[in-house]
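Give me structure tokens for this 739-residue protein.
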Amino acid sequence: MSHTKIFSTLLLSLVVHFSWSQNKLLTINDAVLKQRTTLAPDRLMQLQWIKGVNTFSYVVKVDGKEKIVQYEAQTGKIDTVFTIDDFATVFKTLEIDVPVPQRLPFFTWINNEQFRFFYNNAYYAMNIKTKVGKALTKLPKNAENINYNVETGKTVFTLENNVLMYDADTWIKGAGTSSQKVDNDVMIKENMLTTDGTYGVVNGKTVHRSEFGINGGLFWSPKGNKLAYYKMYEMAVTDYELMNIESKPGTFEKIKYPMAGASSHTVKLFVQDFSSKRQFEVLTKANPDQYLTNIAWSPQEDLIFIAVVNRAQNEMMLNQYDGRSGAFIKTLFTENHPKYVEPEHPVTFIPNDDGKFIWMSKRDSFNQLYLYDLRGKLLRQLSTGKYDVTELLGFDNQGKTAFYMGATNNGLDRQFFAVEISSGKTKQLTNSPGVHAVNVSANGQYFIDTYSSSTLPRKTVLMDVKGNELAVLLNATNPLADYKLCGMQMGTVLADDNTTPLNYRMFYPPQFDSTKKYPVVVYMYGGPHAQMVTNTWLGGADMWLYYMAQQGYVVYTIDNRGSGNRGLDFEQATFRNLGTVERADQLKGVAFLKKQKYIDSTRMGVFGWSFGGFMSIGMMTRTDAFKVGVAGGPVIDWSCYEIMYTERYMDKPQENPDGYKDADLTNYVKNLKGKLMLIHGTDDDVVLWQHSLKYIKKCVDEGVQVDYFVYPDHKHNVLGKDRVHLMQKVTDYLNAGLK
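Here you go.
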């Protein structure tokens, strides 16, 4: 039996009924294009600590012009140190043919007088005292994966599928007999770190489809003397062709797409030693059925650490290799799980102690911090809360205290913690309900806390590590104060196991009348790593959901089991049966809705994208809860999705044929009773266009009518101005079926 719980304001301020008297309504353009700009709560732009001092900076706009402000944490002294006019004056001395930026670009402090920024594929530095600047690097227009090393000033990047290095001493202009011309610049051969890159051989880029927390393929050693980089061999992976409709006739672009159960790519790790001008392979055995994840260097650059995961993803070995030769040294420890393991964070060394590091793991059901030595001996578990540690933020300057964020309050909040490394003694440093984002000073004495909740648009405060609030830097006003918006309620419903509380969020139409009947739009995702409901401003919702509430709908979202930031058991409940537990939990949410007297259960619609598209079709064809559904970029058949993600949650198709068959949405086409529209981008290289086409083909074969719309040249997400078109399309379809 399910139940609902509404948190009181005294508990977590999660029940909110907006009562603004204004009558202005959102437009679809407002909801799509302004939710992160003029309709977002104010923020301190480019807020950051300055290296080496207890001073931070941020950018303000005065009379339409941006300025950099510095704030001394100890004294509270505030100074304007650089303006957009200063920037323009200095920039004109550096570049003749490059337009001057009209806004301050994103920058990083080198020290308290100089900052570095990237613009027009070049790095520059400026001095705020002397008002002098210089160009640090100037790269080809098609350079990608650009990685600047602070210690040496060298820059590595990828060009097509090779790794190159920019060094001011060796990068020259013009043609040379022993060089390769690159975008009117010439790189002498010694700066081509690889030369074998081609279609099927990829250097220096992300691998394993960016799973396991991988977001790049270039790894500088701490002092910049060495560079590790991925080399991926994709020859065994089947080709998939994406159509280019701009050419006449249309042409096809080939990509490599490893589908579940098929041959995968092989990944190796190489090291370039700049001191000895030597290159070597890290000896990981190059097994095609393994994943090389979470690359890390030791502080002295003599060791490399790799979390090696087998293809079944039920075993992880944290291996140690010689950073001077690439030789395998030892396996520090192994983690196993009957379902899966998923390392997403490399080892992090303790400052001033090269012999100890922190490892993040879900081995005790929640993501926690563990302290190890270089022998692989577990010294202690540092965090023990019944919540996931979401981020290790850093340390104090002595390396005695570590700082981290935790997903407390059943995953709704993010709170800031400090743990004493020698003892594991932990203190929570933020206490206000909500989602906190914290920036710690270099010495660990101060931190800047920016947070919001369902009742607080955004607040930024300066605090010390004793928990004292030193200053309020920003208290944002409600950006929607001029608009007529809707009541919002947050609470819990029991999952289908009748034990686990699931977080939900619900919006009511303006001038809500509980004696009337309202149609419902359920927005869902439901897949791993995602969380739709959080204790942030407006509950973490996309503004289109508010727009739909203004159109007269009750708008509902629930995070089912299988979604993120609720611990391993919560996430792994869906193992080998994607869609089953998730659907059962979503139906618990539907049952809760139907018990509300103001809900018109005959007019309920569902919308989701990607995994949410998969869920939406399942809700339309495997339940009778919904009259109308919209599914964007949906997975239809998991055997046609990528290896790394799919096999983690479903095993191989050969190992789990019943699970794949049960999840294949084409098997339920005949069950469709309501109106269903599928949407897909024709260039989708994540969930291939083939998925929805396969579904449409089955609908034709079975004589089942569905609606279909494609976005030419768009990938997995429809972005930019075309997103307005997309959301208007979704809105119109739901309106036509529910009103």
